[in-house]
Amino acid sequence: MTEHERLAALLFPDVTETVEDLEARFPARNLKEGARVTRFAPSPTGFLHIGGLFSALISKLNAATTGGVFLLRIEDTDKKREITDGVSEIIKGLGAFGIDIDEGVIGFEQETGDYGPYQQSRRAGIYHVVAKRLVEQGLAYPCFCSEETLSAIREEQEKAGTPIKGYFGKWARCRDLTFEQQRERIESGAPYTLRLRSFGSEDKRISFDDLIKGKIEMPENTQDVVLLKTDGIPTYHFAHAVDDHFMRTTHVIRGDEWISSVPLHIQLFKTCGFRVPKYAHISPVMKEENGGKRKLSKRKDPEAAVTYYAEQGYPKESVLEYLLTLANSNFEDWRRANPDAPQSDFPFNLKKMSVSGALFDLTKLTDVSKNVISRFTAEKVLADTLAWAKEYDPVLAELLGADEAFAKAIFSIDRGTAKPRKDIGKWNEVRDYAAYFYDALYENDLSALPENLTKAQCAEILSAYLAVYDPADDKDGWFARIKDLCEPLGYTPNVKEYKKNPDAFKGHVGDVSTVIRVAVTGRRNTPDLYSILQILGEQTVRARLNAAIEALS
């Protein structure tokens, strides 16, 4: 037995499993050629950020478009930063926006898949198997340096003007301890970490092909980084390499803040004897401010949290549609050519992602959402609005739920046509959109009446219409009555005629219909007026016309 093997037995006396056993327990996946295995691996340390949702979507798309697997791994080794029920918040956030998990953590102490556990806090035994192998090969060693010693090393490096600082080379105090020295300290109970024995050189560089940013060249890693902390828990760097290998991850897709760690990560994969995955680093989601750009901030921007979009009532389809416009610049052209195609049909390509970072624009999101909602059926609009309102607007939920057939008729107006209206961008706008259909929300506001007409003229129009109003009219018959009112009252039924000779008339048929529209709805701009009158019913229409006449008199 070599000294390295004796050291490994001393450090890991209870580890009997081998790396070969792990390879057999987690074999190569039986997937078709070219299928990608991707993962979303957040820490449960706070709310799910919109940037995290974006990253998860990109990972999901890469797996889905290749017939691969998208898994959720929870990196919860840092218990100091973990928040209560943080895992549930992540899962809820992904689910709320339709990012389905193929494998991994799916709920509280619930997992699916054959490559788990999928929470790092439950994988200590796996990390220790690999760590033991590294010690046996002389590629890792125990470090007994205290925080005070490490601080003293940093101070020495500062004074010496060392260009690269950290635990490496001559500064790595425990790197060349003899086995006897190591054994004596271990048996005395001295605390220790386990460090990588790096063979990187300051004079050498590594290069890798980032699937988004292209070829990147960087210095090799020279640091003897910590692999296991004093409590035996792995650092992020070591754990992710072990996890990605034994979960058979083929493509690591993550934020570009991790680019600086790639030399270390590649070194870890190679040192462990693992195949290096492909890397794709996503630029951060940006926000425009004062003529410049900055990252979306958890502290400054409410829209940084995915919960914001649920509270506002953006449909998951709208959020994903907008994120796809950020993901690939050709998505909008594809959507125009395929207005009714499911998002899953879009040929997503990592290489078409922005290198500099996408600009997040809430106004653009709302515009996209209006287009998405305009294609929904009335049944879906009602169902989704009710689901949202039950949590965020119980008054609206009660009104809509009291007569769902009535509510469905409201959402059916101008829907399913070649050019549907786009009045609703999110569910918190439905209350205002539908307010005039419900007496509890309706306000008799006549301020939107045409400015070119007097109150007396408006009252005259309403009185004349009230006299001929017949709820049994079909749409053509109804509009014929409106036109027939015009000439006796001094208006022209022909808008072009009015534009040619405006001084000859009080107004045109549009003014007449606007007066009726405002009297009944309190709005100048609404969907189809005939449909509104039919839904409101004769009793309500007559009551509102009379109330308006009285207010104008």
Question: How would you portray this structure in words?
Answer:
It is a single chain. With 553 residues, the chain is an alpha/beta fold. The chain has 4 domains: 3-16 and 124-282, Rossmann fold; 288-374, Glutamyl-tRNA Synthetase, domain 2, CATH 1.10.1160.10; 378-437, no CATH class; 455-552, Arc Repressor Mutant, subunit A (Orthogonal Bundle). The chain has 23 helices and 15 strands. It has helices at 3-11, 19-25, 50-64, 86-96, 124-136, 147-160, 179-187, 236-246, 262-271, 306-312, 316-327, 331-337, 362-374, 378-392, 394-402, 404-412, 430-434, 455-468, 475-489, 495-500, 509-521, 529-536, 538-552; strands at residues 37-40, 69-72, 103-107, 110-112, 140-143, 193-196, 205-210, 214-219, 226-228, 251-255, 278-282, 286-289, 292-295, 491-492, 507-508. It has a 4-stranded mixed beta sheet with strand order 1-2-3-4. Helix 4 links the parallel strand 2 and strand 3. Helix 1 runs antiparallel to helix 5 (124-136) and helix 14 crosses helix 16 (404-412). The radius of gyration is 33 Å and the shape is elongated. The termini are far apart. The relative contact order is 0.08.
Indicate the topology:
Elements: H1 3-11, H2 19-25, E1 37-40, H3 50-64, E2 69-72, H4 86-96, E3 103-107, E4 110-112, H5 124-136, E5 140-143, H6 147-160, H7 179-187, E6 193-196, E7 205-210, E8 214-219, E9 226-228, H8 236-246, E10 251-255, H9 262-271, E11 278-282, E12 286-289, E13 292-295, H10 306-312, H11 316-327, H12 331-337, H13 362-374, H14 378-392, H15 394-402, H16 404-412, H17 430-434, H18 455-468, H19 475-489, E14 491-492, H20 495-500, E15 507-508, H21 509-521, H22 529-536, H23 538-552
Parallel strand pairs: 1-2, 2-3, 10-11, 14-15
Antiparallel strand pairs: 3-4, 5-6, 6-9, 7-8, 12-13
Helix pairs in contact: 1-5, 1-7, 8-9, 11-13, 14-15, 14-16, 18-19, 18-21, 18-23
